[in-house]
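User: Protein folding is very new to me. Would you mind checking the protein record under this note? It all follows right here:
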Amino acid sequence: MKGNVIVGQSGGPTAAINSSLAGVYRTAKDRGANKVYGMLFGIQGLLQERYIDLSEYITNDLDTELLKRTPAAFLGSCRYKLPEIHENKDVYEKIFSILEKLDIEAFIYIGGNDSMDTIKKLSDYAIVTGYRTRFIGCPKTIDNDLALTDHTPGYGSAAKYIGTSVKEIIRDSFCLEYGKGLVSIVEIMGRNAGWLTGAAALAKGEDCLGPDLIYLPELPFDIEAFSEKVKDLLAKKPSVVVAVSEGIRLADGRYVCELGQSVDFVDAFGHKQLSGTANYLASYIAGEFGCKTRAIELSTLQRSASHCASRVDILEAYQVGGAAVKAADEGDSGKMVVLQRLSDDPYQCGTEVKDVHKIANDEKVVPREWVTEDGSYVTDDFVSYVRPLIQGDVSPVMVDGIPRHLYRKN
């Protein structure tokens, strides 16, 4: 590489997003990049000319390893929607003037659907105006909903945490017998795609029956049918554990969480903030049957639990970061790195690049055939798909009994 590289992180963080950042940095330096800049708080921060020279923070191999084991977005993130070019050309002129000033050859953006929209718009502007900077998307999202890629870095670690946590909740729920039964409802992230919620089935094994019910947002949620299933289960066992997606909806399109409270906050991309699904259902079941209920919201722990990260996930995140730099160095632009599964046994996965226009603003959902006919569980095919992604562990670097992270002051 003859010029410099700039990299940013966008959207919700993960336990693996910084491993991709490490992959970008190391590969860019190995390929001869003079400087590797990190934009602070994504494209929004870049518009304010907020960026750092990553060589000031990653000075040796230990820093690289710490970064790979550090959760959340080291560079900071944003949820900023670039306007359409015809709506505000000034925004693009400002971005590209900054890139020219920094002599940027490759622009790498680590993120999900909305981040790929940014790559699409910037690469289109570069083509129209003749700018030489190349734009490559590096996939990241615990939601696993990016099109054209077998899976996304960040998902495997989140799935591992969910499977582990649900198993521990099940074990805990069997400690005591309550006279009228106990129903625990675990709320898991996932607006329109149930990849994360389905991972609750990983709790099932020789030593655990797994959750009793799993509900994904891909299918309409029937509260009465749900209530009947819980009633039947309570008649057979003292404890019931249910995994639900935060985004489950009724047949009329209303989110279940909206039944208990209004959802007022909407981000720049029009996404409602979803929370309260488990609380509503727990209150509903308690009112119906007079039993004890628990509402358990895993919330941000799903994406920040680096102590429970998947080794496969961390390695693949590093791999796609390096592949993004390689693609830009070899002349690609307007592309996203994708993971292609080569085999399940043994598990093997490689990288390719695909046109970001076929990825941005699309959403990959769980196939209907991977959900049981009555919509209350996932099939063995789903579990076979996700299980290879959670394999192996990444030991934190422990100091005084607590994991050490690579830290940047804001």
